UniProtKB/TrEMBL annotation:
The keyword Cell division does not apply. Heme binds at residue 459. Pfam families: p450. Keywords: Heme, Iron, Metal-binding, Monooxygenase, Oxidoreductase. Belongs to the cytochrome P450 family. Its cofactor is heme. This is Cytochrome P450 302A1. InterPro entries: CYP11_CYP27_families, Cyt_P450, Cyt_P450_CS, Cyt_P450_E_grp-I, Cyt_P450_sf. One of its GO terms (molecular function) is oxidoreductase activity, acting on paired donors, with incorporation or reduction of molecular oxygen.
Amino acid sequence: MIQFVIISRIKLKKQLRCNWRSVSGKLLNKESILKETPINFNEIPGPKSYPIIGTLYKYWPFIGEYNAEALDKNAWLNWRRYGGLVREVPGVNLLHVFEPEVIEAVFRQNDRYPARRSHVAMLHYRLSKPSVYNTGGLLSTNGPDWWRLRSTFQKNFTGPQNAKQYVENTDDVVREFVKWIRDSKLSHNEDFLIYLNRLNLEVIGVVAFNEKFNSFTLQEQASESRSSKVIAAAFGSNSGIMKLDKGILWRIFKTPLYKKLVESQQYLEKVSMDILLNKINFFGKEHERKNNSLLESFLQQPNLDLKDIIGMMVDILMAAIDTTAYATSFALYHLARNPECQQKLYKEVANLLPTKESILTSDVLSKAVYVRSCIKESLRLNPVSIGVGRLLQKDIVLKGYLIPEGTVIVTQNMVASRLPQYVRDPMLFKPERWIRGSSHYENIHPFLSLPFGFGPRSCIARRLAEQNMCITLIRLVLEFEMKWMGGDLGIKTLLINKPDKPIKLSFVPRH
């Protein structure tokens, strides 16, 4: 009898090891599922879940230990306590994934229309205004409606040649910005992020709409000016998205956060309509037809109507101003904190552009290897968001667990990118790790750092965003030596990762 119990326990341990072992991120096929019964989703480690409230209590003020504006810190807690897969139930089934092999498995699904559960309140608002919008836009729409928009708009965004045609226009704007910095003699006590927001509004205005906002004039720097209100509306739209996604009260009555979203969207709608109507009124004039803005290309698409274009214009204003400004501010922070990297960057740029009057072309940009590596490394440490979200459209098996359809998966790329098992000296800013042939080069897993997402739902303006950052870094480092005058910089997670402290930089002219 004792021998039988011992043998049974040995068999049970072997079975448990079989169920718990990693499948290296690969999904089990039907034969594997028949051989091994997947473990129930509720068995995945994670915070204790209660009826009705699930794990929402973790985010409640005073009671919970999680902070909705510090999701990176929450993710660190989850990783240390529960491991590579972590289950939460804040109203929906939520799965956090930390291991790059498993992240890859999530993105290798053969979904015709990859879906996500995001911008739920914005979707609700836009669908309530059929006179203005056909859909919720690229950010919040799923299914065939999303694919119609994505497949049409991406023709103007995603090709390498599409971004290259805007190098000259972007460089003109950035050069004006650099001159403004030199002439205004900025103090390091000012938050430079404010001016990066204005820079990116100017760039996207010219590239997307052939529109100048003149946001660095004294008039436009006033709080009630058009450019100031556009920047505020973009932030107002983005900052409450995640809280509204988790909330339910706004569905019953208009909460203050929902009202802020609505007011912000309405102002961006107004600006977009004004710009669009102005362009249409002059559409017949030959000189107006020669501009190569994104808006011009939208107007030539036969399967888009004006409501689709308005939605895309609002999305561009929402996504382009804050996102690129935050990403650029982190890159400047890392370069200013690492003067040896900044010096290498300067040497490369000075070699490519021997004088400040040298023309920056797409060919010059293609040779800026160290510039691009600095951006990659900054985005590894401080990505646009903590990770990428997906809404499962069918049951799958990950690491022996059955993950049911309808589960929201969040890939925790920011935390994973800072783990020593995946990156050597992960907290060091070391651009050389991305340069093939460098003694510091690392063969980093391709799904470890995904600052722009992956696949059909990746950032549609990725090439433009990276190009804008490259041009900004090139022109700033060519003109100034940059010094960091603040303390350690963390993040505030407001859908996208915002610096949690002012960007305090000193700009010392090189000549």
